[in-house]
């Protein structure tokens, strides 16, 4: 027989599980001078790229590249905070590194998992259900940011949390950035950075592919490595393909 027991519930608070979206830093080197230089190269001209995003520092790659390497966590945290990041947790280090990280104010998060953004899938068909009263619908994701005018040298456009569509030329020295895909329905001659926050499924499309730099989820290629003649100045797309030796950029011509 079931027995119901009287209980008291707090009236001033509740405690529930929550999922917190985190930015992850996969630390591959303990050389903070090099790290600072590469942060400046990638984000130095984008002071508002991060918006005090909570971050977990993953020391696993550092363990593989430089086993036992010491890390100046105070300097590392100061560097990250200067870019409007909020490091709160750490994972993947050895006992000494984890102890140093905790002393610096980080929380151990051994169960934190990093995953690649999954491509959208078609929903499975479901059986018809009885009609119910309409419920409040969630707000749709923001649509693509559309730019109609040419972008001149020194101009920068960032589509935070969405795709970017550019209807005019991206001139040399201009920069287009998106957390999702980038579509340029004109010559792309500047820099294009898609999947800026790690979305490896993002792509770059252009009617005339001749960029100074292309990047998806941090993997980049500059004009110092010329594009093949079958691609240069022609309609093409750029995508990221995982492989046993790491992700690589693949550029495919498009038939129009």
TrEMBL record:
InterPro entries noted in UniProt: CAP/MinC_C, MinC, MinC_C_sf, MinC_N, Septum_form_inhib_MinC_C
SUPFAM superfamilies (UniProt xref): Cell-division inhibitor MinC, C-terminal domain
Entry keywords, A to Z: Cell cycle, Cell division, Septation
Domain Septum formation inhibitor MinC C-terminal: 146-240
Domain Septum formation inhibitor MinC N-terminal: 13-87
Matches recorded under Pfam families: MinC_C, MinC_N
Protein name per the record: Probable septum site-determining protein MinC
């Amino acid at each position: 027989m079931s027995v119901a027991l009287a209980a008291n519930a707090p009236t001033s608070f509740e405690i529930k599980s929550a999922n917190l979206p985190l930015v992850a830093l996969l630390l591959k080197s303990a050389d903070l001078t090099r790290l600072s230089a590469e942060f400046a190269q990638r984000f130095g001209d984008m002071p508002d790229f991060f918006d005090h995003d909570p971050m977990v520092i993953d020391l696993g790659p550092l363990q593989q590249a430089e086993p036992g390497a010491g890390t100046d966590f105070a300097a590392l945290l100061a560097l990250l905070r200067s870019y409007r990041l909020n490091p709160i947790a750490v994972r993947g280090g050895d006992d000494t590194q984890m102890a140093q990280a905790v002393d610096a104010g980080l929380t151990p998060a051994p169960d934190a998992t990093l995953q690649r953004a999954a491509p959208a899938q078609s929903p499975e068909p479901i059986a018809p259900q009885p009609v119910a009263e309409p419920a409040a619908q969630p707000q749709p994701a923001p649509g693509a940011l559309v730019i109609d005018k040419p972008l001149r040298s020194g101009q920068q456009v960032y589509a935070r949390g969405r795709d970017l569509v550019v209807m005019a030329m991206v001139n040399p020295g201009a920069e287009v950035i998106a957390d999702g895909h980038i579509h340029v329905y004109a010559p792309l001659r500047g820099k294009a950075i898609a999947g800026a926050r790690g979305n490896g499924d993002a792509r770059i499309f252009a009617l005339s592919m001749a960029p100074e730099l292309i990047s998806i989820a941090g993997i980049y290629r500059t004009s110092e490595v010329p594009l093949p003649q079958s691609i240069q100045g022609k309609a093409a797309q750029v995508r990221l393909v995982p492989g046993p030796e790491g992700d690589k950029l693949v550029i495919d011509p498009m038939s129009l």
